[in-house]
Design a protein that fits this description.
The complex is a heterodimer of chains A (about 110) and B (about 120). With about 110 residues, chain A is mainly beta. Helices cover about 0% and strands about 50% of the residues of chain A. In chain B, strand 7 (about 60-65) and strand 8 (about 70-75) form a beta hairpin. Chain B is mainly β and about 120 residues long. The chains are: A mainly beta (about 110), B mainly beta (about 120).
Chain lengths: ~110, ~120
């Protein structure tokens, strides 16, 4: 079955440590996205990639980094510079970055203490 | 003012009721409108996808877009306990690359259907 796989489902880290969240898709989609979801704030765009080897900052990119070396993969690194990293992180993809709807993975819950 | 406004609820209805979920928006250039359903601790799942004004029906779900009023709705007929979830509206311009064409989400409405 085609879809988006995010791993792990739950992640715990100590403050000051970098952590990388995995996102893999087998939908053959060109565009991929990372969102952060916090209670009462909806989904906020962190980074997006329209095509391999290209990515752009979203609304809240500070303290995060990404790479897009393969079409299928778009890992997100939460660095120690991110002030409030504890959140639910969602990866999504779409056929292209145009009018296509987004399809989401099941998220990674990151807790930093 | 947020670009997309959505009543957070919670909305509690009895099984079998008709549910109406709504969003308003400020950018008249939005052309593509979506509704997502999100169960607790899961990712959003695309329910409905519509272009411009009009209605679209899929089973018990009807999406309605009124661009003149900048208002979109999702109706759920014969609601079931399994419909209990958070419903997110989303919209985008649909053209142009870059951040201007990002998908903008409402904050979601929490729906509880009581058996």
């Amino acid at each position: 079955d085609g879809g988006i796989t995010q791993s792990p489902k739950y992640l715990f880290r100590k403050e000051g440590q970098n952590v990388t969240l995995s996102c893999e898709q087998n939908l053959n989609h060109d565009a991929m996205y990372w969102y952060r979801q916090d209670p009462g704030q909806g989904l906020r765009l962190i980074y997006y990639s329209q095509i391999v080897n290209d990515f752009q900052k979203g609304d809240i990119a500070e303290g995060y980094s990404v790479s897009r070396e393969k079409k299928e993969s778009f890992p997100l690194t939460v660095t120690s510079a991110q002030k409030n990293p504890t959140a639910f992180y969602l990866c999504a993809s779409s056929i292209r970055h145009d009018n296509s709807p987004l399809h989401f993975g099941n998220g990674t819950r990151l807790t930093v203490t | 003012q947020k670009e997309v406004e959505q009543d957070p609820g919670p909305l509690s209805v009895p099984e079998g009721a008709i549910v109406s979920l709504n969003c308003t928006y400020s950018n008249s250039a939005f052309q593509y409108f979506m509704w997502y359903r999100q169960y607790s601790r899961k990712g959003p799942e695309l329910l409905m996808y519509t272009y411009s004004s009009g209605n679209k029906e899929d089973g018990r779900f009807t999406a309605q877009v009124d661009k003149s009023s900048k208002y979109i709705s999702l109706f759920i007929r014969d609601s079931q306990p399994s419909d209990s979830a958070t419903y997110l509206c989303a919209m985008r311009l649909g053209f142009g690359g870059g951040a201007t064409n990002k998908l903008i989400f409402g904050t979601g409405t929490l729906l509880a259907v009581q058996p």
